[in-house]
User: Fold this.
Amino acid sequence: METVIRIGTHDGVFHADDVFAVAALQRVFVNTIIVRSRNPEVLEKCGILVDVGGVYDADVNKFDHHQKGRAGERPNGVLYSSFGLVWAKYGEHICGSKEVADVVDRRLVQHVDAIDNGQQLFEGPPRFHGCAQFNVSTFISLMNPRYDEGSDYESGFYASLTLADHILDRLIESIRGEIAAREQVRQACLAAGNSEVVVFHRFLPWQTSVLDFASPNAKYVVFPSEAGTWMVQTIPIAPGSFTPRAPLPEAWGGLRDKEFRETTGLSGAVFCHPGRFIMGASDLPTALQLAAMASM
Assistant:
């Protein structure tokens, strides 16, 4: 029989750090029982402690960060929460790759850790007045019962645990896909040379790697969509930026179908997004023509 691992964490209000920490541990240990308690006598019977107990000692699977002196920080200054401590020990095992685990840490774990430790992730007021941030930590907090809904924290915790597991699964698979696609992106950029257009003959997750390989002259990427059309999308000035190297023509923004065809003179022109960062065509030759016209 497989050994049953008892994962202890605190009861009551839960947050993204303890939920994701438990979700990560369940990817390491197949046969687990989750014990939610603050009773020391109950917790000492657990093989793993998360976000409770006042001790960080990865060698004996104790992952708390509330004690005096906390539990350390990353080189960039982001403090560790229970999720980050678990990920530091088991992330590579979960992902099967240190490269993937490091990207998960940057994209998800550090955000959860910083918020749980009260660290401000982004400086300055929101760009748009009245607009507030909403993230995975906010969402999981909402899974706790409202002040007038009673005290059923258990159902919300386990619902959040299912969600966290799904997020981890999809994020890991997405990053694996990006890494696997890097060579194809590189080859397409080499084929484009100094051209202003990089063509992918199948859809690839190109956004995270195209700037590593594309010529400084490259303005647009062309690729097929799942709907059968061909897309022309602007290359951003930096990863994650919405600012393009070269926006699509102002006169095209928001046009579609007949109006777009008449304006461009191309029967295969389908639409141009009002944000002028992407447009569509019915076929590859038309997409290439639209890209050439846009770069003029």
